Structure prediction request, 477 residues.
Amino acid sequence: MSTVLKFRRGDTTASNAFTGAEGELFVDTTKDTLVVHDGVTAGGKALATESYLSTQLGAYTKTVDLATVATSGSYDDLSNKPTIPSLTGYATESYVTTQISNLIDAAPTALNTLNELAAALNDDASFATTVTTSLSGKQATLVSGTNIKTVGGTSLLGTGNITLFSGAYADLTGKPTLFSGAYADLTGKPTLATVATSGSYNDLTSKPTLFSGAYADLTGAPTFKTINGNSIIGSGDITISGGGSSFSGSYNDLTDKPTSFNGLGLYNANLTGPILLNGIVTDYFGQSQGTGSGDSILTSEGGYAVRWKNLKTINGNSIVGSGNITISGGSGGSSLTYGQFVDNTVALTTTAANQVIDTFSAVDYRSSKYIIQAVCDGVGIHSTEVLIIHNGATVYITEYATIFTDTSLFTVDASIVGDPAEVQVTVTPTNANTTFDVVRTSLAARTFTPPSLEGDLMTLSGTEDLQIESGSVDLNV
Prediction:
């Protein structure tokens, strides 16, 4: 069995970090000692130096004969040294590197190893045979017209371009005759009726007889009576005659008139010749009579008194006489005993600020309550309750209840405008094309007396002029 003697050299740090093969020696240059390795222990086992032994054995007088190598540390002083074989003929690392570089030369990176070359040859150990087999039977020489065809008499061999078919349908030979697309060129086509091309109802055959629209052409029509021999079917007017002459419309021309009339608020009396007064049949008397309690004389014609009994008034105004009686309540409103009720609809097309949706008289009404509903298609609904009061100059407004489905659609405000004064309620819509439904309840205005000013009005000095509703008063203060 051959034996190899290995030596290493380094400081204590390197020695402690090294685990040598069995029998390998390490020269510790820090401790100047030799370390023997057993192939297992890191740092090996250091041989004791003379100075170490002298220190440890200082008290002993026995002399120990040490081998020369123990103090020299020289390989040459070892006895029974193994024979180190000669390195002649072994390649050095630099030699091997040079030879490999020469082998690779300038080969590309993808083909500079044996494995890459083998992969390029499809790992085929018989690549040459495979290629030879693949090429066998191939034409060695191409001869135009013999072992390679020509195109239109032109050889495929050589350089240049061969002009082939132009691609135009007109250049085709033996091409078929294509259909023109005209109905007239179709063969075996069906014979169509005239209406198929004219589209006219008149060209239809066996068409039904349509109703003329005349009542006379109806079958099973109901039978109507006539008026004075005139049919009610048709246009124009039917003159209703009586005894051969048209009725004048006068009460006097009526036949079988009553000789007395009683009830319906008219005074009991014998009618000797009733007349028609403003569309109301009234009675009159054959002699002059005084008005009784609750009687109201309407007019006097030819010495006859025409009267109506127990007539009521409207808002304190008698219904007797000419002219008009105005019933308060405002446009679109209903009159209440102590106020007014109004409902209306206003459609606003823009988002302009302060657009008017309602007004009421500031003189007639002091307080108003509103329910305002706004609807905007595609956006939502917004409803709010508003309470308004004013003192003749300033409007006070509170919006105490509001709700909407998606987003607020408007804001509301009010002010006093015009002469005579009116309270004007306005809105500013968030969206164009918003419809407002407005319901208002107003309370009638009552006399309002401001607090009296009594006592002294103190200022720093001088006389102050205080303006009040009844005029100007000088107050010495």
